Amino acid sequence: MEQYNQDFKRVDNNLLVATHLCQLLTYVSGFGGLVVPLVLWLTQKDKVASMDIQGKQIVNFQLSLIVYSLLSIPLIFVFGLGILTLISICIISVVIPIVNAIKVNNQEPPVYFMNIDFIK
Which residue segment(s) compose the domain that 81 sits in? Predict the structure, then answer.
């Protein structure tokens, strides 16, 4: 039996976990980590509880990673700082979605730091 919250939205933690883990598609397709969560967020934000908030966080996180990656490219010529920054971004882009998927599965709020709010 499906559960609903007070706003009559379906509670679907499995879809929220899958949305967080879809960010890892970046390493498979190069762009799926942004496109798949964006499509899930746009199609399910009115149907699934917490999808609107978490979907915005995920899309903002992915866009922020792209901006940080682009900004780190010129830093490669400054004492190699760009290489360290790119390595950090790669580690963060793998660890944070997995940690947040586990948090959502345990019904805790996900935490995305260093987000630039492109979508509010």
Answer: 13-105
